[in-house]
Amino acid sequence: MHLDALLIVAIGLALVHFGFPLAYYCYLKRWLNKPWDVKRDPGYKPRVSIIVPTYNEAGLVEAKLDDLARQDYPRELLEVIVVDSASTDGTPEKVEEWARRNPGLKLSIVREPVRRGKAFALNNALKHATGDVVVITDVDARWGSANTLSNAISWLGDPSVGAVTCLKKPAGRGVAGVEEGYREFYNVVRLAESKAHSTPVFHGELATFRKSLLEELGGFPTSIGADDSHTATMIALRGYRSIAVDNAWCVESVPREGYHKWRVRRAQHLVQHFATTLRHLTKASSGLRGVLLPETHLHLFNPWILAVTTTILLYLAIKGSLTTLTLLALGTMLLAYRPYRTWITTQLYLVIAAIRNLWTREIAWSKQEK
Ligand code: GDP
Ligand code: MN
User: Fold this and answer.
1) Does residue 189 have its Cβ closer than 6 Å to ligand 1?
2) CATH number of 1-370
3) Is the full-model pTM beyond 0.85?
4) Which of 75, 95, 329, 359 is the most buried (most CB within 10 A)?
5) What residue spans define the domains of the chain?
6) Over the stretch 62-118, which tens digit does the pLDDT of each residue have?
7) What's the gap in Å between 167 CA and the centre of ligand 2?
């Protein structure tokens, strides 16, 4: 009798765990097909400062700068600031050499004597930025085409937009199956959230902010790994739109080794971001709350519902419940189905991330080869 009640609880929790994101996804799908209510202006050409943070990127930094130099944005309105945090592999020297070969692009290097993390470095670079718009881009990210930057900037032509990010295509030799499934799904989510109001997850491949708003916020948060996402969310909480747009695509590199470690670190950063966002939820407008509330739940609480469900089912299975054994076998067999497998692994990363955040926040993480 007691065990039957436990089984009903477990099934109820499972329904909540899977039903909540499905309901949210259906809600978002409705937004996806609606037209944008912000108006992009391709003629809007502000002065732009592109900040490239580097830590031991000697292998990739030149290709990155080549990629930036290919952009069709007017040269006279563009500056690149590389901020290097005490790289030991000669990254700044590579950048200097590149600058000598490419005098047409305004480029400066900010060198930090000690490494304190990416956000610290971004804040340092920010002091030197002269643009009205600041763009952050990671060294291992490639922009899709020569007009990626122009396209992203054009959305800031609407004064209600405060921040813009790209959508992502995965590349590299990581666990490609899981990574691709994960991307398709999340691109839909990011875009639909942006149409509804704002997306709380920004991408380091291309994150664009009005500088005046960054200054109001006092720069990037240095104790939250997902500095770009959190900044975008704080901007949205001030009433501006922080959006991901479907005419700016970036290719992200997936590490060749240590894929799971990478996913856990990124999940840790997101958990830090949403745990802080949770405290500001009451300030959100109703449109923004419609995104932040479910996203906060999905990142902070929903994974634990699955963990509790699984624990109960395992307990009941040990107690000899045949129904439970059947359910567990079914759940395991379903792992052959990619979207389900992708979902379950993501939940696992989020649970591990929350636990790991208790002793390390991974603000200055070890570099992984891409
Ligand atoms: P991931 O995309 O989350 O895997 O993070 P990466 O390791 O690729 O780092 C993102 C970007 O930040 C890359 O361009 C790194 O070189 C850079 N980066 C990471 N840590 C630091 C740091 O401590 N200082 C600076 N200046 N850049 C950093
Ligand atoms: Mn990266």
Assistant:
1) no
2) 3.90.550.10
3) yes
4) 95
5) 1-370
6) 999 999 999 999 999 999 999 999 999 999 999 999 999 999 999 999 999 999 999
7) 14
